[in-house]
């Protein structure tokens, strides 16, 4: 037989050099993100997948008092999980993520900016350079832990917290917060077949009526299967004349993943997912009885099994 298969929580972006303890007023600075949604359009959770990244630019514009000479801005994840994850989907925790900008730092989950969770930037004077930009990078690492994920888009909302300081390093204003970027990571409906083809299901000298083959695969979602045979669920004696006489054929029945496969073949939709960790689906062949009255020789059939992601 032959098978043929063929949580951006927190990058602290810092705009500052001075030390202080309080925050900007809402009228002192404006904060914007471009784009407002940081999206990884396709991330594979299989261990042979790749680390994926996406970026947004944060702009902090000084609009109020010209006494503001620096600011610290953090992006916060309200869920504060450890490690940080991009939301949940259908009960599955989202992918682990980190946020970096300039120097590498771990996303903070508190609202206290420090040198360790934010990056320093400075307005160059009291009268110009009112706009400061910094790039924040969302990183989704390779799934080395083998966590399981269902296909779809995982999403995480964030907030920002900004502190401002004057020329002497004292705080300016009473605080400024707002909506940060939304983090999206899409896990596609993926399928990997681990069992390489072709494979042989061997009845040997026909001492048993049942033989099977375990098809090993990994999938994020459901699996579709198309099964067909060259000889319509019967093994045929090699070199038999055409039309093939009954003493040169051995019929069998077949199931795949517990579903009956008729002689004409079958398409099976949305079989159970195997998961990122993988699983087996069985191809089982059963003879109605041990063969008798058959000509000696080698009997064979070719089964073609095509697996694709379901919906």
Shape: rod-shaped
Tell me what portion of residues adopts beta-strand conformation: 35-45%
The largest sheet, given as strand count, sense and whether it forms a barrel, is: 5 strands, antiparallel
What percent of residues adopt helix (DSSP H or I)?
under 10%
Named at the architecture level, the CATH assignment of the largest domain is Sandwich
Q: How many domains comprise the coordinates?
A: 2
Number-wise, the strands total 24
Order of helices and strands: EEEEEEEEEEEEEEEEEEEEEEEE
* Count, helices: 0
Q: What structural category do the secondary elements indicate?
A: mainly beta
How do the strands line up in the largest sheet?
14-15-22-19-20
Low-confidence stretches: 1-22
Q: Mean pLDDT, rounded to whole units?
A: 85
The name of the CATH topology of the largest domain is: Immunoglobulin-like
CATH class of the largest domain: Mainly Beta
Tell me the distance between the termini. 29 Å
Radius of gyration: 31 Å
List the helices and strands and how they pair.
Elements: E1 12-15, E2 29-34, E3 37-40, E4 52-62, E5 68-76, E6 88-89, E7 92-93, E8 98-100, E9 131-140, E10 152-156, E11 159-166, E12 176-179, E13 182-187, E14 191-193, E15 210-219, E16 223-229, E17 234-237, E18 249-251, E19 253-256, E20 259-261, E21 266-271, E22 275-286, E23 299-300, E24 303-309
Parallel strand pairs: 3-13
Antiparallel strand pairs: 1-5, 2-4, 4-9, 5-11, 6-7, 8-9, 10-13, 11-12, 14-15, 15-22, 16-21, 16-24, 17-18, 17-23, 19-20, 19-22
């Amino acid at each position: 037989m032959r098978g043929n298969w063929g949580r951006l929580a927190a990058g602290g972006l810092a705009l500052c050099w001075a030390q202080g303890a309080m925050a900007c007023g809402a009228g002192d600075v404006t904060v914007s993100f471009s784009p407002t949604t940081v999206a990884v359009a396709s991330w594979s959770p299989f261990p042979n997948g790749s680390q994926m990244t996406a970026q947004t630019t944060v702009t902090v514009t000084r609009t109020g008092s010209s006494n503001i000479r620096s600011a610290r801005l953090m992006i916060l994840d309200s869920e504060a999980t450890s490690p940080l994850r991009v939301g949940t989907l259908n009960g599955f925790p989202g992918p682990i993520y980190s946020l970096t900008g300039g120097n590498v730092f771990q996303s903070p989950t508190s609202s206290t900016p420090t040198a360790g969770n934010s990056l320093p930037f400075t307005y160059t004077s009291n009268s110009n350079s009112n706009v400061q930009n910094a790039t924040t990078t969302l990183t989704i690492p390779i799934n080395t832990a083998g966590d399981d994920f269902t296909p779809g888009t995982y999403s995480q909302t964030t907030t920002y917290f900004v502190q401002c300081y004057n020329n002497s390093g004292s705080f300016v204003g009473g605080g400024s917060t707002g909506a940060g970027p939304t983090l999206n990571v899409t896990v596609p409906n993926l399928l990997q077949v681990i069992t390489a083809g072709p494979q042989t299901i061997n009845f040997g000298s026909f001492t048993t009526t049942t033989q099977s083959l375990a098809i090993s695969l990994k999938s994020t979602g459901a699996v579709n299967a198309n099964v067909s045979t060259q000889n319509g669920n019967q093994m045929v004696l090699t070199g038999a004349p055409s039309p093939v006489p009954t003493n040169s054929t051995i019929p069998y029945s077949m199931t795949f993943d517990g579903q009956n496969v008729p002689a004409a073949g079958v398409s099976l939709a949305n079989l159970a997912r195997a998961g990122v960790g993988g699983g087996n689906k069985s191809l089982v062949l059963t003879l109605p009885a041990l063969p008798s009255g058959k000509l000696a020789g080698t009997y064979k059939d070719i089964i073609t099994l095509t697996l694709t992601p379901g919906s």
